[in-house]
Structure formats: structure tokens, C-alpha cells
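Hey, can you fold this one?
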Amino acid sequence: MKYQHIWRDGNFLLGNYPNGFERRINRFDVAPLERDVLKVTFDASPAPMFDLGIEGIYKVNRYKDTLLGRTKDQRQELNLSAAYGDFKVFRVTAFADFEHTQYDSNHWVGDISTFPNEVPTGAYPWASNVKDRNWLFGLAADWVYSERLRIYGSYIYTKANGEVDFSAPSYANAIPIDQYDNYRKTQLNVKATYAATKNVDVTVGGAYEKYTYTDIQMDGYNPAIRTGSNQNFFSGAYASPNYRGSIAYLTVTYRF
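Sure. Predicted structure:
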């Protein structure tokens, strides 16, 4: 079990700003903060060749002196693992991970000359809560088939869901975003290593990966140039983030 508390302070010069707006914006990487981190790990071997592991992490950063900018962020993570077998013959390992992160921040939109007094026509405060939930599952096996041949395989599946909650005055019509951003990734890897001689190893393998990405910013992506006075258009960057990749390889290792 491990607990950590960090306290960071800073003295910022006010500068010659025409109003108090900029003085209230703190960048989170240098802003005063209080951090608490708790980490708990359990490892056990309930039977011969059988291992279990659990790890939990909680981390929170509080930026108490920040009026505009990131005010708080936190992370919770849970890792589970189980393994069975002997490294000299056959061993299989399964693992899973869940992580939740949240970033809270305060902002101002519109004319800053009115700050901190809001104006319904376009100058008002708003808040954002960015949330990410990530899942990972994996399975790996290592098989020493013979004195010369060793086979390895692994499968990993990753999924992430992101969303943003907004809060603002009613006239701002703030709407939560539930696809910011989401992705899924599948990875498969298999290889075999053969000790041809005392000095030469030959490895044959293959890998496959599939990636699917969804972001509401890219929905309805149209790279066509618009007509009329508005000539804004997308360049094509980030238009097609999804991909599939396959690779086969052969390597030869020689030891002097």
C-alpha cells in the first residue's frame, strides 16, 4: 500500500493587463495544486504455478487557486491478472484493466471586457467535464514445445469511451457530447522461435491489428470546397482514421 500527498505553490506576477481576465487564468502544469495518490497492490500464489494479482490506483489533483482553467482532475484504475503454468514448459496469462479519468475546468466565452459580468448576447462563463472510460482485456501464452522450439501468442482488446458534459447559462444551450472520442482496437500476435544451431535462432511470426475510431467532430466529414463567399473546406486530414494492418516476418539471429 502506498499513499502520496504533494503540495505545490507558486507566485505569479500580475503583469500589465488591461483587465483582470488574464490574471485569473492558470495553466494546470504550473498552477498551485494539491495531489493525493493511493495505490494498493495484492499478489498471491494460491496454488503451485498459479499466480493472481490485483492493483487499484486513485489519483486526484485539485487546483484550488484556479478560477479559469482546469480546476480538478482525477483517475481511478483497476488492474487484474492471473497466470498459470511453468515458464519452462507452458504458461498462460490473462489480464484486464479498467481506467476512468475526469478533467473539470471553468472557462469564459465572448467579450472579456465585461468579465466577470456576463452578457446574455455572448459573454458568459461555462464549465466542462471531460470523461474517459478505458477497458483492456488480454490473453498471452508461452509454450516451450521442445528444447529448440518455443511458441508465443497474444491477444489484446482495447476499448475507450469519451464524453464531455457542459454547464452554462440556459441561453447558451449547452449540449453534452457523448462521442468525444471513442475507439476500439484489436491486436493479435503469434510467433515461433527455433534454435537451428547453438548460435542461430530463426523466428517466424505474424501480427494483425484493427482500429476503429469515432469522434463527433468528424461526423459528416466533407472535403469538398464550398461555393459562395464561404470557401472553408476540410483538407482530408483525419478523415479516415480507421485501419487494418497485417504483417508477416522472418528474422534470423546469430550470436557470436
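The chain has a mean pLDDT of 89. Let me know if you want another pass with a different chain boundary.
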